[in-house]
Amino acid sequence: MEYLKDTMDILLIGIVVICALFDLRSQIIPNVIVLPAILIFWGAHYAFDGMSGLNASMTGTGLAFLFFFIPYKLGVLGAGDVKLFMAVGACLGPKGTVTTFLFTSLAGGLYALIVLIRHKNALRRFFNKLFGWAVVSLGTRKLNLFPEDAEYQMPMLCYGVAIAAGTLTTVMLSHLYPNLLILNILEGLS
Known about the structure:
Layout (H helix, E strand, L loop, with lengths): L1 H25 L4 H43 L5 H40 L1 H21 L18 H18 L4 H4 L6
Helix pairs in contact: 1-2, 1-3, 1-5, 2-3, 3-5
Keywords: Membrane, Transmembrane, Transmembrane helix
Organism: Halodesulfovibrio aestuarii
Protein name: Prepilin peptidase
């Protein structure tokens, strides 16, 4: 049974790396990769663990959707990012999805900081906008949103890179340190 986990982990790593490369190149994560991946992971879990495996895989898929739905609706993430993370959830189940979400969030924050540092004007504009927003919101006691500046856009973040980094971290740690606390906090979920 361990060979199945290893095989699915290798397949998952290949999928997230390929999707990260597509994301960097064209800001698109192809449905032709992620949608079949979800179905393959559901099928593999069902074939080897029956309904309990399918339930765990679908729960991971649902959690992944829930974690990324609000950022997607806010326009922070694209639909491809959501579907890629759903494929991750389908492979790793609920415990792995939560752990990967934490590592993906850390990787995404670090990635965003690096992009902003490389684009110093963007970082300066971001903090000016944040300061202006805070002053106006505190002064009026309303959360006012500033319209986007049409002549200047923030640099694009390809979140597929963060998803790949978070997934690789989770998979590697789960193999190297299976008793690591962060990996076992949610033991009851899977």
